[in-house]
Amino acid sequence: MPRSDPPRPPLRARRLPLAAALPLLAAALAAGCAGPGPRAPRYATEDFATTTTHTRDYPAAAADTCEAARRALLSQGFFISAASDEQLSGRKQFQPAAEVHVEVEMRVVCAPAAAGRPGSTAFATAVQDRYELKKVNNSASVGVGAIGSLSLPFAASSDALVKVASETLTGDDFYDRFFTLMERYLPAPPAAPSGAAGSVAVPVTQAKPPPVRELAPAAPAATPSPADVPIPPTASRG
Predict the structure, then answer these.
(1) Does residue 42 surpass a pLDDT of 50?
(2) Residue 95: inside a domain, yes or no?
(3) Domain count, the chain
(4) What is the mean pLDDT of residues 89-106?
């Protein structure tokens, strides 16, 4: 008969000494606690230093500036929800993805120029709202009066757009393009009247009249003498 080997004893887990296990445990705890900390909100970096991103000066009245802004938004497909001589707002919808919906609302305020200067200033702000399609659980209960107060829950789910973010747009290029488009719809400046300040006057040179020549006095007419006067012939008598 073949000789069978005796069964081997089960392997025992190797135990590390306590002095070697403590550094590994401390490293694991440090890795777990070293996750990303809370992010600072975006408004924490607002320093109110720039004054050109959302404003632009125009040589027109406030009402004309707001009308130019309204026409500029209409030309880009915005829906004007409110408009007046001093402010207006419009919205436009975008669909960047199948389950993502974005709305941009533009608000423009027109004010006269400061310090009594001619013209007006336009203040523009754009807010972007982001919506995503999510599952919404709906539950209802039915009471059965015949057998007592018994409620039977019914659960269902449906798709709905849920607002997930809202942010003010701060890109300089975005507002530069909008303000440049507004200039196309501003009224043309009135033509400067003739003789106004700043026009170059052309001097007119008048020709001097020719000098007057003095004429010598005319000599008196000579009186004819009797000898010079012809005598008519006398008719003879027969």
Answers:
(1) yes
(2) yes
(3) 1
(4) 95
DSSP, res 49: -
d(CA 127, CA 46): 16
DSSP 120-168: EEEEEEEEEEEEEEEEEEEEEEEEESTTSSEEEEEEEEEEEEEEEEEEE
> What's the Rg (C-alpha) of the chain?
52
Domain CATH number, residue 114:
3.30.530.50
Please give the residue range of the domain that contains residue 52: 46-131+165-183
Lowest-confidence range among 19-28, 157-166, 168-177, 188-197? Answer: 19-28
Q: Where does residue 73 rank: exposed (0-12), middle (13-18), buried (19+ CB within 10 A)?
A: buried
Residues making up the chain, counted from first to last: 238
Assigned domain for 13 exists: no
Backbone angles phi, psi at 33, to 5 degrees: -90, -5
In a domain, 218, yes or no: no
Measure the CA angle with vertex 84, ends 81 and 87; round to 5°. 80
What is the mean predicted confidence (pLDDT) over 46-73? 91
Q: For 107-135, give one letter per residue: b (16+ CB within 10 A) or e.
A: bbbbeeeeeeeeebbbebbbeebbbeeee
Q: What is the pLDDT of residue 231?
A: 60
Chain position carrying tokens 């003498």:
225
Kindly report whether the global pTM for this prediction surpasses the value 0.70.
Answer: no
Identify the helix (H) or strand (E) that includes residue 57.
Answer: strand 55-58
Q: What dihedral do alpha carbons 21, 27, 32, 34 form, nearest 10°?
A: 160
Q: Tell me which of 158-167, 187-196, 206-215 is least confident.
A: 206-215
Confirm whether 160 is domain-assigned.
no
